[in-house]
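Q: What would this chain look like folded?
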Amino acid sequence: MSSATPGTASFTPDYRPVGQNVRIDDAAVHILLADGRTLDVPIAHWSFLARATPEQRQHWQFEPGNEIIYWPDLDDGLAIAHLLGLPED
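A: My prediction, written as C-alpha cells:
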C-alpha cells in the first residue's frame, strides 16, 4: 500500500490482503491483517453470520493464502479483498 495524497490510500495492482488472525465477539468479526491493520466487520451485515450460533461463528478457518475466512459449518465465507473494496481474482 502506498499513499498518493495525504489522507488517501492507493493499492498497487498486485496487493493481496492476507489475514493473520481472527477474533469473533457477539457484535463483530475482527480480522488482523498481515500488514498490521484490523478490520472490524459487523456480524449483522452478513446474514449467514447473523443466523449462526456463537459456536458456529467460532469454528472458522483461513482458506488458500489466508485471503478468505471460511466457516465450514455454515458453508460460507468472507474474502478479505472484498471487505476492503478491492477486486478479487
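The radius of gyration is 14 Å.
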